[in-house]
Input
Amino acid sequence: MSQRSDVMTTRAIGYVRVSTDDQVREGVSLDVQEARIRAYCEAKGWQLFAVVRDEGKSAKDLKRPGLQEILGALPKRQRCFDVLVVVKLDRLTRSVRDLGNLTDAFKRARVGFTSIQESVDTASASGELFFNLVASVSQWERRAMAAMGHLRAQGRRISRQPRYGAQFDAAGRVQVDPREQATLSRILQLREVGLSLRAISADLARDGILARSGRPFTASTLGQLVRQGSPADTLVWWDRTTDPLIKRPIGPLLRHHCRSPPVSLGHQ
Output
């Protein structure tokens, strides 16, 4: 990461995110996160130019307006920040692979990154070590997912048990199980006409149709099969792909803050 001269003030931008009311009750509300970022920057003597918010957004991927605006600003010479500050890593992402892609983007742009709670600071040796470990794990995960995708494309098994409606042949290839496919169709039809999961289980049991365990279907198992979808979807496994970092012009929020003085760090 870039090292600035001591005579130059580090310009920071904060990022806060919350997805549920439970997180607000647990003390990670947007206002609480922003207050901690302000206090941290004040203690470090950094200029805080903006705090970008993503409210009601999950960390399952990188498709968040605020985060995408920050990422779009990374390669721009006119950006107004040298370091991104978050309270916790999970405010940024919960995916090791996404975190690996983000750290790569930060390094390419020569932008620092700090997570307050985990004491991660890329300007330090320990912070650099942390990101090297993340990058290594992310690379391993990408290779593992690529290998699994190759097996899927060949119709080969990648798990101990196939999804309901399919079976493995002697060579480990995925094949349709006609009996389970018929059962799955019946489950979906019964659910569509309004039967409860328990009623569906009882209906199947009366005809001697049981789960793989040899017992009546539980409501939770039937719920999973309903979410699984139509029998035609049984043999389809979609690869989980990481959303690309979207390159775009600096958005209005950052453009406004880059042309304005840094926010006040004084206590309100």
